[in-house]
Amino acid sequence: MMKTTIRSVWSFSLLALACTGCNSNELGTVKASAAVTYKGEPLSEATVTLVPQGSGKRSAVGITDEKGFCQFTTLAASDGAIPGSYKVTITKTSESVALRPPVDFNDVEAMRKAEAERGGAGPWGGPPPTDLIPAKYKLAESTPLTCDVQSSGANEFKFD
Prior knowledge:
Helices cover 18% and strands 23% of the residues. By secondary structure, it is of the alpha+beta class. Strands 1, 2, 5 and 8 form a 4-stranded mixed beta sheet that branches. Strands 4-3-6-7 form a 4-stranded antiparallel beta sheet, with no helix packed on it.
C-alpha cells in the first residue's frame, strides 16, 4: 500500500515537472483567431491551419464552431500563434472514419455488427471522406489565403 502511494506521488510529481516545460509562452505565441465563411455562410467544423512561411516556426491550428469562428493553438489550447507570415489552409470533409467509434478487432461479433451498421464496408465504414470545399484551400502550395500574425494588437482574421 505504501509503495503504491509513493509511486503515485512520484508519478504525479514527474508529470507536473514535465508539464512545466510545455509552456507555450517560451515560443512567444500571441492570441489569434479567425472567422471563416464559405459562400457567405459560416463554415462550421472546418480545420484551419496556419502554415509558417520560412523556417524555425510552428504551425497553428483551429477548428471552427457553428458560427465559423476558431481560436488558434500552437502547443496549448487556444494559446495562439507565433508572430510571422502564414499561408492559411482550410479543410472540411464529409464524416471522417476516424470519428466513428472504435471496434474491438478481437471480437468477431462486434466486427460483424460494425460491418452491417456501416454498409458492409468493414469495421472502418463506407467510402473515404470527401472534400466539402474546393481542394485548392487544402494545401499551402495552392491556397490563395495568407495572414500576418502581429506581436501585438488584435490578430482576428476573416477568410471567405
